[in-house]
Amino acid sequence: RMLREDVVDKVIKRDVLSLFNIRSPLLMEKLFLYLCMNSTEIFNATTAAKELEDTSIATIDNYIKALEMSNLIYLAKPMDVGSKGALKGKPKIFIADAAIRNAVLMIDDVLSDEKELGRMVETTVYKHMVSFYQGSTASLGYFRKAKDNQKEVDVVVELPRQKILCEVKYRNNSHIAATDAIVELCQDEKSKVTDAFLITKRLDDFGVTKHETMVPILRVPATAFLYILGKTEAEGKNGKL
Fold this sequence. Notes:
With 241 residues, the chain is α/β, with parallel strands linked by helices. Helices cover 40% and strands 18% of the residues. Strands 2-1-3-4-5-6-8-7 form an 8-stranded mixed sheet, with helices on both faces. A hairpin with a 7-residue loop joins strand 3 (139-144) and strand 4 (152-159).
């Protein structure tokens, strides 16, 4: 409760309003709640505008920019990878801290809900990746096929000499099909992928996946992956995964 009140009352209703030209504090509060409910999903400003008091798209875009500049949300842009064709122009929204989302939505027992737990870990992975590559030349986003099965890759990191894919499968069975986007891209020479990680749940779920891809897909438990990112960043070696 205290965290929820701090975010809504002190950050959104006070700090964000004083820094940006926010004409409707209530709409901003509703928008942030809407984003919490749809975190890790593709965001459509037109849909949000209709669902939130039928307001203008321009207002929604302005409020989104304010929340992003306040470091309350991340916008993951769609990125082209290889020859598969990416979804254009629609970002994914991440609440910057999974704990804030859980507090705002009053989700108490997240550990018993596999879907909510997966969202929380995906958010945490994206947040750590953003922090890890901050100050570098890296571009971060996500990939989603525009056609066929529309499978996606949760995190794409593009550097001059590296292209990294990261897919979160935080569940007891982390198996991925051959039709999953990360598998297809690791088999596509035109994708120029250099590294690929499948983030898993169990501590004993590690190693190379069984798919015979040009670029091996390495299974890494989420706790180990996040620890490595944090430790490397603390040592001042961030940006070199």
